[in-house]
Amino acid sequence: xxxxHNLRSNFVxxxxxxxxxxxxxxxxxxxHALTRDFPEAFLExxxxxxRDVPVVVLDFxxxxxxxxxxxxxxxxxxxDYAHVSIVDVTAHAAALFARWLRDxxxxxxxxxxxxxxFVMENGDETPWSLPxxxxxxxxxxxxxxxxxxxxxxRR
Length: 155
What we know:
28% helix
């Protein structure tokens, strides 16, 4: 069964587990990158409890292409670790954001891993690698494959 192209999920993007410092990220640098590339971005700094520890997070909403908005949260709980979550998006919108993250923010295009809430709700917490090259269409294909992997096998 093919995954519907309009299926919405939450996606989390993070550096590789074996190299949590790969992004060299901070809340400030992420906010600057968003406003540089998305001048109309909405940004708001908040405190959030991440694993019972207060963490400063950056909530954001950007228009990744006309009429395609992405809202999410960037958490940088330690100087050497980061993750960015986006909520209630199609694979297409997630791919537009992921391409920007990979090509315009992280220092190494091979350093982005992702998971979706759809897959995690079905018991799989194994991160997938975002392709190090390719356009948003190619990334969307990988995201859709990820979502399809969570669907029970049809017998």
